């Protein structure tokens, strides 16, 4: 097996530059443009979320030649809350451009492969090191010279390929499961809207039932079928707000749990998460499979798929003793767009909704007979969704355990 050598990023690049930010409001288009990638599209696991891309016109793209991207470029976030995140540009993203908060790292591919360096950047100790480099700054940031100075352990190209294969296969399995869950959620939302909002569900004869004027949106309720009820969100489910967890500090190391805040709801528990004592009322302990709704700041709805944790304020745990989980999840999700609009209209720095908005959000609840009829279908979808999340967690833990050991050479992979 070949010996590894120590190298800096600066030893391996042909170019390090950064993107260009257009003058405010200029060059952006709604459609038929060139992809423009910002820091918020990049996650700590190396994922580049193309749904968060915006578009610029061709003229602006051509003007910013310095920041035009190529396949294999590594985008490295240099500032703010996204500091240390990185992702790799793929062919399907091109043509593309990026802003000045992202460094563009172009490698000499005879020395290092983008996927290998991408895995190097994803190591928790590397992310922590990068963040510590900027600890003295009021606004966290690093520069080109600091990126170029980062040290890595470098095997030869063949061993790089084998490491990429091991970690990449785990990433692919995780991505496939996430896509399956996305498809499951879209299917469930489509069926829910068709059957419980537009009332196009089969009757006893197998024919579609259609109410007269039954379609509705968040602000307009139509006629509902006989035996169904009109109820508010607050009456079909309990929305339990979390604790001010700073008031519940860790007392002992064997009785503590991470704190679930808005950040963790979006990206999971991390080394940077806060901790609280586990000796709080059991109703505030969140476990995998619970429905969580962030009602302040970044509004989102999620079935929690992480480890046990303590619910922080600004998050609701959503439960019901009367109705199935899928029904309260779907109705909360149905009204989420309206809630987001309400929160964004607030004149405060952190938009939010009030409990009164839950009281005002109306839901059409089917009869027990109809509910029992559709329970198996929605429960099966939800169970598969939750099981996929559990498998994602298992694969993620395996990948994250292997990652630093493979990248340091502690575990070696024999090239064929």
From TrEMBL:
InterPro entries: Restrct_endonuc_typeI_TRD (IPR000055), Restrct_endonuc_typeI_TRD_sf (IPR044946), Type-I_RS_S_subunit (IPR052021). The keyword Phosphoprotein does not apply. This is Restriction endonuclease subunit S. The keyword Transcription does not apply. Keywords: Coiled coil, DNA-binding, Endonuclease, Hydrolase, Nuclease, Restriction system. Residues 167-194 form a coiled coil. One of its GO terms (molecular function) is endonuclease activity. GO terms for biological process: DNA restriction-modification system. Pfam families: Methylase_S. Belongs to the type-I restriction system S methylase family. It comes from the Bacteria. Residues 1-185, 225-369 form the Type I restriction modification DNA specificity domain. It comes from Plebeiibacterium marinum. CDD domains: RMtype1_S_SonII-TRD2-CR2_like. Gene3D superfamilies: DNA methylase specificity domains (3.90.220.20).
């Amino acid at each position: 097996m070949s010996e590894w050598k120590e190298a800096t990023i600066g030893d391996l690049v042909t170019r390090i530059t950064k993107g260009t930010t257009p003058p405010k409001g200029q060059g952006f288009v709604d459609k038929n443009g060139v992809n423009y990638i910002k820091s918020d599209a990049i996650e700590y696991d190396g994922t580049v979320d193309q749904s968060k891309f915006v578009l610029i016109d061709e003229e602006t793209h051509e003007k910013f030649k310095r920041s035009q991207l190529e396949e294999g470029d590594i985008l490295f976030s240099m500032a703010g809350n996204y500091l240390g995140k990185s992702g790799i540009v793929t062919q399907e993203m091109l043509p593309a451009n990026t802003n000045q908060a992202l460094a563009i790292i172009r490698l000499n591919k005879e020395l290092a492969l983008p996927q290998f360096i991408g895995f190097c950047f994803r190591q928790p100790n590397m992310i922590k090191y990068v963040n510590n480099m900027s600890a003295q700054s009021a606004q966290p940031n690093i520069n080109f010279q600091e990126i170029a100075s980062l040290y890595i352990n470098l095997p030869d190209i063949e061993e790089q390929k084998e490491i990429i294969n091991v970690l990449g296969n785990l990433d692919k399995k995780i991505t496939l499961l996430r896509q399956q869950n996305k498809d499951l959620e879209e299917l469930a939302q489509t069926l829910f809207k068709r059957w419980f909002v537009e009332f196009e569900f089969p009757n006893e004869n197998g024919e579609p039932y259609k109410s007269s004027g039954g379609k509705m949106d968040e602000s307009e309720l139509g006629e509902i079928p006989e035996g169904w009820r009109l109820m508010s969100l607050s009456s079909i489910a309990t929305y339990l707000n979390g604790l001010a967890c700073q008031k519940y500090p860790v007392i002992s190391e064997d009785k503590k749990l991470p704190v679930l805040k808005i950040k963790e709801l979006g990206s999971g528990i991390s080394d940077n998460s806060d901790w609280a004592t586990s000796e709080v009322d059991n109703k505030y302990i969140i476990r995998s499979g619970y429905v969580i709704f962030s009602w302040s700041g970044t509004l989102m709805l999620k079935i929690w798929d992480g480890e046990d944790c303590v619910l922080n304020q600004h998050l609701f745990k959503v439960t019901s003793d009367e109705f199935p989980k899928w029904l309260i999840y779907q109705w909360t999700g149905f009204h989420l767009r309206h809630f987001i609009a309400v929160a964004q209209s607030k004149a405060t720095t952190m938009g939010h909704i009030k409990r009164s908005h839950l009281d005002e959000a109306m839901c059409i609840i089917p009869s027990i007979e109809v509910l029992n009829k559709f329970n198996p279908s929605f429960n099966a979808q939800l169970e598969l969704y939750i099981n996929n999340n559990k498998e994602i967690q298992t694969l993620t833990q395996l990948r994250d355990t292997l990652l630093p050991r493979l990248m340091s050479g502690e575990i070696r992979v024999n090239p064929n």
